[in-house]
Design a protein that fits this description.
One of its GO terms (biological process) is proteolysis. The chain has about 450 residues and is an alpha/beta fold. It is built from ten helices and 20 strands.
Length: about 450
C-alpha cells in the first residue's frame, strides 16, 4: 500500500457516497458534518450577523450548499472551492405509474447526459424529496431513500435481438421503464406512502408532490489488487464535494475560505441553486455587507474589491487515460489515475483556466508535494464544461478548473484512483491555508 493511501478518508468517502443518492441527501449529509465541526447554520430569510473568526453555512433548495469561514483579522479575499451535487440519472415523471404485461412500472425522464446501457440489469433503489400534506392541512418536505433493490430494467435476451452488440440505439421512452412488482392495481403514491411510514413513521398523509429518481444500490468499493481504485455511482461530482468538504474541515482557519456545492450542473446550471443562478453572488454580497474588503463595507466598490482579491478552484472530475481507448486522448494530455489532480484547459473557454490561475495552482501543488497533470481534449473532438466558466462569468472571480481523473464518466458506476483523493485534498488544504493568492 502506498504511503499516500488514506484508509480513514476513503472510508468516509464511501460512507458519504452510499448515503447520498440524490443532491438533497448530499447537501443534508454535508450540512451534518459541518455542524459537527462547529459551523453555524444561516437562513436566507433571516438577517445575518457575521462575526470574524466564525464559520457558517447556508443551503438553497435543500440541494445546494455554501459553507464559509471568516478570518479573525481583516477579510482580504476568499479562497473558494466549487463543485456540484447532482449526477446524471433516471428521474420519475409526475404521473409515473404505468403497467405492461401484468407488471407495475414507473415512467422515467433522463436527467443529464446519461449512459443508458449500464442501467440494464442493475439492482435499483429509489430516493429523493417528497412533499406530504398532514391531516391539519400543513405541508412538509421529507427525504426518502429506499436503499434496497426494489426495481430493475431487464435486458432483452440476445436471442430476440441479435444486433444488440452492434451499437443498437436505446429508446428511454419505450425501453427504460423499470419494473417494480407484479400488480394490476398498485400505484406509486401508495408505495411512497408505505415507504414514508416505514422510514419516518408518517401515517395518514397525502403525497402531494415529489422529485424522485432511481439509483444503483451496489455500494461503493475499493477495487484492484492493491486497492488502487474506488468504484461508485455519482463520483461525478460527489467526489469533488467530499474532497472540498474535507479540505475545508482540515484547513487551519487562518484565511477566508468558502465552499460552494451547486445543483443542476448536469443540465446547464440555469436555476436558483445552480452556478448560473444568484446563490453565490447573494452570499458574497451579504458577507461583504458585514466584513467586506476596503472601502465602505456593503458598497458595490468593496464587493468588487473582495471578488477580485479572491480565487475560485472549480473541482469537477477529468477524463483519465483509458487503457482500452488510448486514442480518445491527445497524446500529450492523457491524465493517469493516481497521477495527481488535473488542470483542465480549453482555448474556447469551456474551462475557466488561464495561465495566471494555472500557475498559482501548480505552485499550490508544489508546496503540498502533490503531482499535477493537464487535460486538453483532442482538437477533433468536442469538449464538456463545468461550473467554472459559468461562475467566472456570473460572479467575475478569477477561476481555474481542476479535477480528479476518472473512467466511465456519466455511467451508473464510475471509477477513480484512491491516491488521487488524498492528492487533491492535500492541495486544496494548502490552497485554503495560503496567505497570498498571487
Amino acid at each position: 500500500m502506498s504511503e499516500i493511501f488514506n484508509a480513514e478518508r476513503l472510508t468516509r468517502l464511501c460512507d458519504f457516497l452510499r448515503q447520498s443518492p440524490t443532491p438533497w441527501h448530499a447537501a443534508h449529509n454535508m450540512a451534518a458534518r459541518l455542524e459537527q465541526a462547529g459551523f453555524q447554520r444561516l437562513e436566507e430569510t433571516a438577517n445575518w450577523q457575521l462575526t470574524p473568526g466564525k464559520r457558517y453555512y447556508v443551503t438553497r433548495n435543500d440541494s445546494a450548499l455554501i459553507a464559509f469561514q471568516l478570518p479573525a483579522s481583516e477579510l482580504t479575499g476568499l479562497r473558494m472551492i466549487g463543485a456540484h451535487t447532482d449526477s446524471p440519472g433516471l428521474h420519475l415523471k409526475p404521473n409515473a405509474t404505468q403497467r405492461s404485461a401484468g407488471w407495475l412500472q414507473l415512467g422515467v425522464q433522463v436527467y443529464g447526459g446519461v449512459m443508458l446501457a449500464p442501467w440494464f440489469d442493475r439492482d435499483l433503489g429509489l430516493a429523493g424529496r417528497v412533499h406530504v400534506r398532514h391531516g391539519d392541512g400543513s405541508l412538509e418536505s421529507v427525504l426518502l431513500n429506499v436503499d434496497r433493490p426494489i426495481a430493475m430494467v431487464p435486458s432483452l435476451a440476445i436471442h430476440l435481438d441479435r444486433d444488440v452488440n452492434n451499437g443498437r440505439e436505446i429508446n428511454p421512452q419505450t425501453q427504460m421503464a423499470p419494473v417494480l412488482m407484479q400488480s394490476e392495481s398498485a400505484t406509486l403514491n401508495e408505495l411512497v406512502a408505505q415507504w414514508l411510514q416505514e422510514q419516518h413513521g408518517l401515517r395518514a398523509v397525502d403525497v402531494v408532490d415529489f422529485e424522485l429518481g432511481f439509483y444503483d444500490v451496489q455500494p461503493p468499493s475499493l477495487v484492484g489488487v492493491k486497492q488502487e481504485l474506488v468504484a461508485s455511482a455519482r463520483l461525478d461530482n460527489l467526489l469533488s464535494c467530499f474532497i472540498g468538504l474535507e479540505a475545508l474541515l482540515d484547513c487551519d482557519g487562518s484565511q477566508g475560505a468558502l465552499l460552494v456545492a451547486n445543483d443542476h450542473e448536469e443540465v446547464g446550471s440555469a436555476s436558483a441553486c445552480g452556478a448560473q443562478g444568484p446563490f453565490l453572488a447573494d452570499v458574497l454580497t451579504r458577507i461583504n455587507g458585514q466584513v467586506g474588503k476596503g472601502g465602505e463595507k456593503g458598497s458595490e466598490e468593496s464587493l468588487i474589491q473582495l471578488i477580485q482579491s479572491s480565487l475560485m478552484i472549480s473541482c469537477d472530475n477529468a477524463h483519465a487515460l483509458h487503457p482500452n481507448f488510448r486514442d480518445k486522448h491527445d497524446e500529450q494530455h492523457g491524465p493517469a489515475l493516481n497521477g495527481g489532480p488535473v488542470i483542465k484547459v480549453n482555448a474556447s473557454q469551456r474551462y475557466a483556466t488561464n495561465s495566471v490561475t494555472g500557475a498559482l495552482f501548480r505552485d499550490v501543488c508544489r508546496e503540498a508535494d502533490v503531482p499535477v497533470q493537464s487535460f486538453v481534449t483532442r482538437a477533433d473532438m468536442g469538449c464538456g464544461s463545468t461550473i467554472g466558466p459559468i461562475t467566472s462569468t456570473e460572479v467575475g472571480v478569477p477561476t481555474i478548473d481542476v479535477g480528479v481523473p476518472q473512467w466511465a464518466m456519466h455511467s451508473i458506476r464510475e471509477t477513480a484512483g484512491t491516491n488521487d483523493v488524498e492528492y487533491l485534498t492535500r492541495a486544496l488544504v494548502g490552497f485554503l491555508n495560503r496567505e497570498r493568492l498571487s
